[in-house]
Amino acid sequence: MFSRIQWKDKKGMKELVTKCLMENNTNFIRLLVDSGFPLHDYVDDSLLAKLYKADFDSNDPRVQIFKNYVFTLTK
Questions:
Q1: Rounded CA separation 71/75 (Å)
Q2: What value, to the nearest 5°, has the Cα angle with vertex 33 and ends 28 and 35?
Q3: From CA 54, how far away is CA 48, in angstroms rounded?
Q4: 21 burial level (CB within 10 Å; 0-12, 13-18, 19+)
Q5: Where is the TRPM-like domain (predicted)?
Q6: pLDDT over 60 at 3, yes or no
Q7: What are the phi and psi torsion angles at 7 (to 5°)?
Q8: How far apart are CA 47 and CA 43, in angstroms?
Q9: Distance CA 73, CA 60 (A)
Q10: Would you state the pLDDT for residue 13?
Q11: Whole-angstrom Cα distance, residue 49 to residue 31?
C-alpha cells in the first residue's frame, strides 16, 4: 500500500505518530510500521518520557495494578 513512499521529512508525521501513540492507536501504528515507516527515527527520549508519564497518569486499571505492585516493592 505505502511501499513507494519516502517517509523521511514528511510534514506532520512526527505530530501524527505522537498523537497515535498518545491515543494508543496501535492498529494505525502497526499499519505504518508494516508499510515500512521507520518508527525508530521518530521516537526519542522525550517522546518516550511523555508516553510513560501519560500512561502512568491515566485512569487505566492496568496502571493501577502496576502502581500497586511498585508500592509493595518500595515498602
A1: 6
A2: 95
A3: 10
A4: buried
A5: 5-54
A6: no
A7: -75, -25
A8: 6
A9: 21
A10: 83
A11: 24
Interval 7-62: pLDDT, tens: 566 678 888 889 999 998 999 999 989 888 889 988 899 999 998 888 888 888 88
How far apart (Å, rounded) are the C-alpha atoms in residues 72 and 3? 48
d(CA 59, CA 65): 11
Q: Count Cα neighbours of 4 within 13 Å in the Cβ-side half-sphere.
A: 0
The C-alpha atoms of residue 43 and residue 32 are separated, in whole angstroms, by: 14
Q: Cell for 17?
A: 505518530
Cβ-based neighbours of 34, under 8 Å, separated by 6 or more: none
Helix (H) or strand (E) holding 67: helix 61-73
Q: Where are the domains of the chain?
A: 13-73
Rounded-to-integer distance, Cα 11 and Cα 55, Å? 27
